[in-house]
Design goal:
By secondary structure, this protein is of the alpha+beta class. The chain has helices spanning 18-28, 64-71, 105-118, 127-132, 156-165, 194-202, 266-281, 307-314, 318-336, 342-346; strands at residues 2-7, 32-43, 49-54, 79-82, 88-91, 122-124, 150-153, 170-174, 184-186, 207-211, 220-226, 229-230, 232-233, 236-237, 239-243, 258-261, 286-292, 295-300. It has 3 domains: 2-124 and 325-331, Rossmann fold, CATH 3.40.50; 136-143 and 215-316, ATP-grasp fold, B domain (D-amino Acid Aminotransferase, Chain A, domain 1, 2-Layer Sandwich), CATH 3.30.470; 149-212, Dna Ligase, domain 1. The strands form 4 sheets. It has a 6-stranded mixed sheet with strand order 4-3-2-1-5-6. Strands 11, 12, 15, 16, 17 and 18 form a 6-stranded antiparallel sheet that branches. β13 (232-233) and β14 form a beta hairpin. InterPro entries: ATP-grasp, ATP_grasp_subdomain_1, GSHS_ATP-bd, GSHS_N, PreATP-grasp_dom_sf. Keywords: ATP-binding, Manganese, Nucleotide-binding.
Amino acid sequence: MKLAFIINDICTEKDNYTTIRLARRAIGMGHEVVLVGIGNLIYESNESVAALVTRPSRTDYEDDTDLLADLQSDKVEKTRCNLSEMDVVLLRFDPADEINTRPWAPPSALLFAQLLANQGIIVLNDPTHLTDASNKTYFQTYPELVRPKTAIVHNAAEIKNVVERFGGKAVIKPLQGSGGQGVFIINRESSSNLNQMIEASLRDGYVIVQEYLPLAADGDLRLLTLNGKPLQVDGVYACFKRYNESGDGRSNISAGGKIKMAEPDDDALRLAEAVGPKLVRDGMYFTGLDIVGNKMMEINVDSPGGITMAEDLTGKDFSGAIIADLERKVRLKRYYGGKLSVTELAVM
């Protein structure tokens, strides 16, 4: 299987990223792997899509750190590759990382990905619906029962009005962003800093004002899904709890959060069941559900993370299960020729 990972840039990858774990597992299973920065895509005059790619120089790596060191080595030069000859292209870039430096890059990469999908390449997650999901308004298209009460505004006075309607407790965060950046917890104790929080949130555009869920103080649950269903290996879910002991209301690992093993409860599985049909319809092959109690805070569809942490906590080979599933999709595509669409294959 020929597998391409489209990422932000090889220089910004880290050894705890899901992408690096998936790439190493694919290499170990005998597949050809390339990594592509979103600024290195090329549309050829013959209508194929090419790229300047980074290739692993070996087929055996001790761990993720070993692989990343090889990929980021000064000795590794980018080579030209025809992506139109790939079997699978995984979209693993985070648009939020490009807001201030290359805002043009993520939407451009999605357009290239759509060209590849139109040529019959299996592109995951589905690039057309990822374009729709370019900011957090996408979450509002899922069933109301899974979502906290939410307002989206770009006006300081209106933000204050919404916070008051929510009883003086709320979470405010930028419409576009990830990793806990720009997220503020509003309560009576922090109200004296409300103006500064609002000003900081408004710098990047529209702001989400979300009702505060008291259980969020204990952390949240990250549940990974594959093909619209919770990812499991040997009956063990790819799931863990994220929490923060510092008093910071954000549980994101990048914001200083910690993790521990967790089993999804009935509420979490019910929420996953509720969003599953739309995940399937939209071709959202691999996602991360962030859950607090009986509500879902967010659905991560752009480069969702957590495989590395789930594997390290459980000892289960979730990355191997994903690569094996991709192998299955390539076989199905071959069996049926052009009769199955890319969106159908995405979650089949």
